[in-house]
Structures are given as C-alpha cells and as structure tokens.
TrEMBL record:
Coiled coil: none annotated. This is tRNA threonylcarbamoyladenosine biosynthesis protein TsaE. NCBIfam families: T6A_YjeE (TIGR00150). The keyword Glycoprotein does not apply. It comes from Pseudooceanicola batsensis (strain ATCC BAA-863 / DSM 15984 / KCTC 12145 / HTCC2597). GO terms for molecular function: ATP binding; metal ion binding. The keyword Magnesium applies.
Length: 156
C-alpha cells in the first residue's frame, strides 16, 4: 500500500475505544476497515466502540461471531460488522452479500484473510497486536485517500 502507515499505542480498552471513535468520525458509505490480529487482540472491542460512537440511539453491539454479520443504521449510513472467522471459503463471503455492502455501506471486517481476492482495494487495514505488558499496538495501512482521515500516531 502506498498510503498512510501509522502506529497507535493504546494502554487500555478505553484508549482503544477513543481511537475507534476518532477513526469512526471520518467514515462514509463505501469505506471498509479490515481488522486483523489474533484472538483477544482488541478487534471486536474496537468495532463495538466505533459503531456505538455513530449510533443515534445507543443499543447493544454484539459480536457477530455466530451470526457472521450484524448491521446498524447510523448517521454515517449503514454499517456492516462481519466476523469471518468461521468461513471456510471466499464464496461464502459472496453469499453473505458483502460485495454489495462494500460499495454501499461502512464495513468492518474481522478475519479479513477469509476474503481472499474479494478485499476492496481501497480498504484500510488495522492490525492489532498485544504486547507483553498488555498494551495494544495498532498498525494502520491503507491507500493515500485515508491519510487525511486518520488521527496522528500515538506514542507510549
């Protein structure tokens, strides 16, 4: 990717949530964020905080681990939150309707490796890592169009 490469360090779930709110503030229909990282790295927490920050009326934001996709109507447009962990092939992504959602909604995709070649070229990839001290390191990479929409890097 030729666009921004930023590193965010968060010391707590609250700081991760604050970052999610900042990223969410600049989203618009057609945006896709790929949330990559190990189980427990903070992907779902980030997605929940981002979604909740955009909801007009607060509501529960469950993990889509078993439903695969949860949708929300927000002031920023429709949001699709997908957890693809349980998928075994990219053809299942097509069956979920994600290809159309990539064009019309804000999409937050956990386990993006399951997309194969279906990952949108303009997506922002956030890679979550947990340090030994529990701090989260979140690396953002995406096309140049994301540069002005992302917050400045943080330092520990």
């Amino acid at each position: 990717m030729t666009g921004p490469h930023r590193i965010y360090l968060t010391r707590s779930p609250e700081e991760t949530g604050d970052l999610a709110c900042l990223v969410g503030a600049g989203l618009r229909p057609g945006d896709t964020i790929l949330l990559d990282g190990a189980v427990g790295a903070g992907k779902t927490h980030f997605a929940r905080c981002l979604i909740q920050s955009l909801l007009d009326v607060p509501e529960d934001v469950p993990s889509p681990t078993y439903t695969l996709v949860q949708t929300y109507q927000t002031g920023a447009g429709e949001i699709w939150h997908a957890d693809l962990y349980r998928l075994s092939s990219a053809t299942e992504v097509v069956e979920l309707g994600l290809e159309e959602a990539f064009e019309t909604a804000v999409c937050l995709i956990e386990w993006p490796d399951r997309l194969g070649d279906l990952a949108p070229a303009g997506a922002l990839c956030l890679t979550f890592e947990v340090a030994e001290d529990g701090m989260r390191r979140i690396k953002a990479e995406g096309p140049e169009a994301w540069a002005a929409r992302l917050p400045a890097e943080t330092d520990a």
